[in-house]
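About this split. The held-out portion is used to measure sequence recovery: a designer receives only the structure tokens and must propose an amino acid at every position. Recovery is the fraction of positions where the proposal matches the reference. Here is one held-out target exactly as it appears in the evaluation file.
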């Protein structure tokens, strides 16, 4: 597996009912195409060798024998081809007729997996023709397609080169209260293939997609589903041809229903990601207790397989989201509403618990302090507190520009809170004199003295007013350590602690569009458009911001990408680098940029190394963070989600960055 990725496919061939030769030819054509694309395992629909809708023809000896011969021919076809092919076929064991999945790879029939749950309602009367795996005798052995077969009622896993484990279930098995895929996953299956024959009914497709997504999420697997399509009998029902690949609840690839042509949904599923999810999910680990170990069958491909797979683009069949923290467009509003509500609920509990109806917030005119202020306003409104209890303090210093100062003052006036303005310049100048620092030297002392003075003012005001200091720093700044220790690093409750920088723009935008009046909205939109800056260095000759954060620590959309995959899944730098290249590459001709940046390899490599260097060296700041609400799957709270020694060594991670 390259970076833990396995290329899989759900294929839907054209079929002719009971025409085995035609059906096999169509299957072989799609297997050839899958091989060309580097697919390692492909699944076809239920009973695709004969066609699912043969009905009483399944009792014909000729059809059963021809289907077995087709499996032999398929075995020969796969010889020298590095791919596992999973096809549906009726199998006569000598005692029973079973609806089976035949797993064929490299010239051999690895085994047969019978269907467990047979529908016997509506238009489906499978029990008229087939027996269930539950009816079989596990001790019986028979020969099929020249291969000795022993059926197993225990989970059967197939291991691909590289170590990915796959399992198989058939159609109705998924719809059962306890699907076989539950046991397959607990036995170690990373990918589950389903051979299906699901007819199309109004509303059924939406339910099917939900069912697949839920099963994939519940079992923490990739689920590859192929269902019968064009060519099946339409005597009473229609088969639309569903090809779906889902990974841990996320749709990765889908075919086109009702296509008159063959189709194939191909995706690179991330086994490393799935296993990372299972390791951190103690519920999954506990559910494995008492599970009966199954059979494991190794699928041996040719000696040159790994080299050939390694030469392919590992993300050619996988879309990498450049903004993993940002909700999709169709769920943007409800997601932002939910996140904002989490922040509000967190602050409300703290205010009620402390019997406080006053807060102090430093307002800079930037995104972070703006979001913190908006959270305070919404919280006060919901609690029925007077907004005048929110004391917004703007503290202009040596680098404050007219634009940010104007926006800070205007927003506070528009929101109707108590406004204070306290210049930090005299106090910081006196401090420079006290410690003997030359104010013309714009170094870290020059910058941090301003941040600490602002925090001192806020803390002292909180004592004077009996108020709580609300922190403004966000998740991205905490990950990079882009905060002055015991300066803006400190507060009494950090409402933005779980929110990454890329998401803050959207949250402020949500509030602008849904929570405030038109004049406040215009102010918020200008704040969104303002470059991110701590404004600790004097403005340029035109009075514009001279110190832009992203010029110093790197683009936040890159860092948030690194944060997500390093913290959420523990991916190593080499994999994150490869993913970032795929996510932030120049768009294909005619493809819209959709707002994202593009970065070359050198730029990604440089900022990835910066990320790891800063992340390790700045842990001491995260070890003593104020309380704050978690809003997503990534959090750096030292009390729950991220526990790391402050003196951990980054050399291994940086060494790998240097090899990229």
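Reference sequence for scoring:
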């Amino acid at each position: 597996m390259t970076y833990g990725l396995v290329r899989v496919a759900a294929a839907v061939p054209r079929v002719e009912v009971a025409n085995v030769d035609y059906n096999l030819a169509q299957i072989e054509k799609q297997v050839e195409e899958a091989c060309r694309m580097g697919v390692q395992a492909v699944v076809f629909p239920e009973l695709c060798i004969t066609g699912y809708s043969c009905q009483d023809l399944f009792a014909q000896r000729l059809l059963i024998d021809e289907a077995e011969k087709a499996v032999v021919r398929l075995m020969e076809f796969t010889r020298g081809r590095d791919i596992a092919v999973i096809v549906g076929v009726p199998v006569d064991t000598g005692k029973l007729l079973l609806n089976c999945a035949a797993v064929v790879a490299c010239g051999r029939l690895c085994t047969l997996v019978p269907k467990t749950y047979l529908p016997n309602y509506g238009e489906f009367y499978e029990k008229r023709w087939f027996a269930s795996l539950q009816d079989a005798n596990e001790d019986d052995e028979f020969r099929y397609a020249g291969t000795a077969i022993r059926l197993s009622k225990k989970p059967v896993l197939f291991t691909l080169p590289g170590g990915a484990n796959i399992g198989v279930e058939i159609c109705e098995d998924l719809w059962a209260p306890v699907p076989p895929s539950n046991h397959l996953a607990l036995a170690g299956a990373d990918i589950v293939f389903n051979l299906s024959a699901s007819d199309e009914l109004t509303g059924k497709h939406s339910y099917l997609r939900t069912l697949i997504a839920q099963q994939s999420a519940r079992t923490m697997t990739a689920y590859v589903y192929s269902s019968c399509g064009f060519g099946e009998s339409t005597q009473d029902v229609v088969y639309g041809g569903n090809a779906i690949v889902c990974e841990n609840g996320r749709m990765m690839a889908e075919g086109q229903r009702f296509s008159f042509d063959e189709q194939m949904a191909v995706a690179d599923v991330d086994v490393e990601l799935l296993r990372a999810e299972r390791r951190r999910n103690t519920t999954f680990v506990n559910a494995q207790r008492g599970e009966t170990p199954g059979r494991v069958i190794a699928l041996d491909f040719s000696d040159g397989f790994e080299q050939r797979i390694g030469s392919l683009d590992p993300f050619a069949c996988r879309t990498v989201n450049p903004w993993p923290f940002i909700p999709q467009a169709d769920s943007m509003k409800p997601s932002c509403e939910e996140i904002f509500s989490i922040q509000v609920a967190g602050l409300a509990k703290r205010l009620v618990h402390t019997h406080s109806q006053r807060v102090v917030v430093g307002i800079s005119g930037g995104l972070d302090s703006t979001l913190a202020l908006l959270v305070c306003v919404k919280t006060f409104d919901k609690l029925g507190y007077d907004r005048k209890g929110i004391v917004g303090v703007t503290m202009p210093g040596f680098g404050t520009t007219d634009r940010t100062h104007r926006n800070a003052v205007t927003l506070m006036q528009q929101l109707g809170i108590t406004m204070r303005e306290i210049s930090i310049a005299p106090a910081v100048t006196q401090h420079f004199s006290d410690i003997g620092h030359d104010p013309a030297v714009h170094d870290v002392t020059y910058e941090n003295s301003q941040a600490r003075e602002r925090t001192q003012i806020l803390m002292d005001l909180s004592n004077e007013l009996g108020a709580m200091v609300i922190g403004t720093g966000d998740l991205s700044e905490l990950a990079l350590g882009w905060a002055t220790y015991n300066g803006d690093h400190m507060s009494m409750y950090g409402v933005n602690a779980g929110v990454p920088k890329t998401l803050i723009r959207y949250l402020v935008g949500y509030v602008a569009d849904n929570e405030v009046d038109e004049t406040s909205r215009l102010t918020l939109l200008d704040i969104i458009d303002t470059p991110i800056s701590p404004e600790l260095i004097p403005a340029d000759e035109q009075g514009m911001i001279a110190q832009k954060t992203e010029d110093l620590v790197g683009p936040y959309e890159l860092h948030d990408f690194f944060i997500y995959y390093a913290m959420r899944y523990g991916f190593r730098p080499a994999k994150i680098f490869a993913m970032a290249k795929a996510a932030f590459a120049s768009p294909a001709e005619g493809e819209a940029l959709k707002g994202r940046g593009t970065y070359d390899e050198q730029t990604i490599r440089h900022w990835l190394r910066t990320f790891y260097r800063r992340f390790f060296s700045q842990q001491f700041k995260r070890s003593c963070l104020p309380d704050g609400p978690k809003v997503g799957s990534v959090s750096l709270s030292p009390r729950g989600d991220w526990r790391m020694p402050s003196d951990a060594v980054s050399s291994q991670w940086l060494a790998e960055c240097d090899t990229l």
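Annotator remark: The longest helix spans residues 332-354.
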